[in-house]
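User: Reviewer 2 asked us to show a designed sequence for the structure in our supplementary figure. I'm pasting the structure tokens here. Could you produce the per-position amino acids so we can include them in the response letter?
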């Protein structure tokens, strides 16, 4: 190969090589540009991703805020509904200046919102609670953040009414009190209903006096008090004499009038610390408390009050349009022992009252153990007396009646009781009891029947057919409408 061709080839190679280099440089520059563009696009893509995430977060945050706003609106709507409920509500600032009240507040006490906003609640105070009451209320609020209880407030019209009040303190994030919220319910109707229930449970509907149930509660309290301070108390059991006759002759409505007037007179005879109760029918009990620690002196105090009662109850009564005279019998028992049984105390006073009746009524008697012995014997005798009628244990004895010259003209029938254990008993041992328990009419009828039978026997004998027979008749028998027909 000649030199010219070689030189030409070398020149072309060099030129081609230079072109290739330029092309490589151009490709490299193009790749760098592409790489830069790709990196820029990647960066922009990443920024777009971040931006999209930010937008998504913002949208989610807005959605959350929207949900929170909906919830807040719901709570505000509920709170507004609650605020205008039937309960009275009042909101004050930390200095107890009224900021807002609801319509129930105005309905209960008569004050409008305009009249109370800017004031403190002191204008509602009724005067029934002292400074110690309010001090204890605020001490509870400051200590626990709340106070609940029953309170009496005064309405705009001047009426004093009970309400159930709740005061709650509202704190900020730092625990500082910002407001007080008071809610209250008018309990006039509820309290009135409770008082009516209590009245029916513990008080006699006719006289308004405590009944047996309330008397027992007060007796229980008095027994405990006497045990601590050593004082005596007394129980007076009172029964109106011949009350049944009044009811039977003038009617129960007149009897009720007498009971009401007796209740008023009894209440006027005692102190506020004492109790007058009606057990039922014409039976009343007076509980005297705070008597002397000396038994004899306490009995004297009870005796003075008891006779004061007897005298007052013996004064005339005006029943409708007519005057009526009555009397009472009172039994008294004095006590100061905590271990005494309530029923036993009432029984003792009752026994003493019966002793007062037996003594002739319009009297007062104190209980002693012998009274109970006598009463138990009387109860047994009454049971035997009823059995005697059923088993025909009575007998008639005849005491001759004669003229001045000894001629027998008749006889007086005298009843005797042939008791299975006690033997022959004379009339003075059982006739007064028969009169009292209402058996005298049946016994008197037996006497008349037996006497007439004896007369019939005498009639058939010439020696006795001229005799007359005298029979003792009870006043109660004369009161029977068919007595003459029976004879």
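Assistant: Here is a per-position design you can include in the supplement:
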């Amino acid at each position: 190969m000649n030199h010219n061709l070689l030189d030409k080839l070398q020149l072309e190679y060099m030129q081609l090589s230079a072109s290739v280099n330029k092309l490589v440089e151009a490709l490299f520059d193009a790749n760098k540009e592409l790489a830069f563009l790709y990196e820029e696009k990647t960066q922009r893509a990443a920024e777009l991703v971040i931006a999209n995430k930010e937008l998504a977060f913002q949208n989610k945050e807005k959605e959350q805020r929207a949900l929170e706003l909906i919830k807040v609106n719901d709570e505000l709507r509920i709170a507004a509904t609650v605020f205008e409920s039937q309960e009275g509500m009042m909101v004050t600032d930390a200095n107890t200046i009224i900021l807002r009240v609801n319509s129930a507040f105005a309905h209960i006490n008569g004050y409008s919102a305009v009249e109370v906003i800017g004031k403190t609640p002191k204008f509602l105070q009724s005067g029934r609670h002292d400074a110690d009451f309010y001090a204890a209320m605020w001490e509870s609020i400051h200590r626990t953040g709340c106070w609940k209880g029953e309170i009496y407030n005064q309405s705009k019209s001047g009426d004093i009414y009970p309400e159930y009040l709740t005061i709650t303190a509202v704190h900020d994030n730092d625990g500082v009190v910002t407001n007080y919220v008071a809610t209250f319910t008018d309990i006039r109707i509820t309290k009135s209903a409770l008082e009516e229930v209590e009245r029916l449970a513990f008080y006699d509907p006719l006289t308004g006096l405590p009944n047996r149930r309330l008397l027992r509660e007060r007796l229980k309290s008095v027994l405990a008090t006497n045990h601590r301070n050593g004082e005596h108390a007394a129980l007076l059991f009172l029964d109106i004499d011949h009350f049944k006759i009044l009811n039977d002759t003038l009617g129960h409505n007149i009897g009720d009038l007498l009971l009401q007037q007796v209740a008023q007179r009894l209440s006027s005879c005692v102190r506020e610390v004492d109790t007058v109760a009606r057990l039922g029918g014409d039976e009343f009990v007076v509980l005297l408390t705070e008597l002397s620690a000396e038994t004899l002196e306490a009995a004297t105090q009870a005796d003075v009050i008891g006779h004061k009662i007897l005298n007052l109850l013996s004064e005339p009564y005006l029943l409708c349009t007519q005057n009526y005279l009555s009397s009472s019998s009172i039994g008294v028992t004095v006590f100061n022992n905590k271990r005494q049984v309530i029923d036993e105390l009432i029984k003792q006073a009752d026994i003493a009252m019966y002793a007062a009746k037996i003594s002739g009524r319009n009297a007062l008697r104190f209980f002693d153990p012998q009274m109970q012995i006598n009463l138990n014997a009387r109860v047994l005798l009454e049971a035997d007396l009823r059995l005697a009628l059923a088993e025909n244990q009575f007998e008639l004895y005849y005491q001759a009646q004669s003229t001045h010259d000894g001629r027998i003209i008749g006889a007086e029938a005298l009843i005797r009781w042939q008791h299975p254990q006690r033997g022959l008993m004379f009339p003075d041992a059982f006739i007064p009891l028969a009169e009292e328990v209402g058996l005298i009419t049946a016994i008197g009828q037996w006497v008349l029947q037996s006497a007439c039978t004896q007369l019939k026997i005498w009639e058939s004998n010439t020696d006795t057919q001229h005799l007359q027979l005298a029979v003792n008749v009870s006043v109660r028998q004369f009161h029977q409408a068919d007595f003459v027909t029976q004879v």
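For the response letter, you might also mention the following. The longest strand covers residues 160-171. Confidence is low (pLDDT under 50) at residues 78-82.
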